[in-house]
What we know:
It is a multi-pass membrane protein. The chain is mostly helical and 127 residues long.
Amino acid sequence: MFERTTGGRNKEDLKNAISMENDLNTIAIFYESLASIPFGSMVIVFIISAFVSFSLALLGTVVGRNWSGAPNNPCRVKTIPRPIPEKKWYLTPSVVSMNGGLLPFGSIFTEMYFVFTSFWNYKEFML
């Protein structure tokens, strides 16, 4: 009842993306494609991005904690934890997932219906 979940990306997603990029780049090198990225360039870009992102995150943490000072809340904050209310039925993951897929599908289907009917001059074709 009092548990909280942490948001964020899973490390597996990052591993999958990196391995997919490496596989595609290996295939591109095997076929001698001009679209392949040299390994040294990939390492240099990774090192630069890691140092830039790490240093900016560290700098932002230090500046954010020291600049703001003590918290100045507009009202008193109780330290007693309150129970988190149960989710409504329409906020459950299954309903949200269905709506997240159904609404875009319906929109795209409606648009494609009008596009194809304009191509076919409102004639219906049966297979």
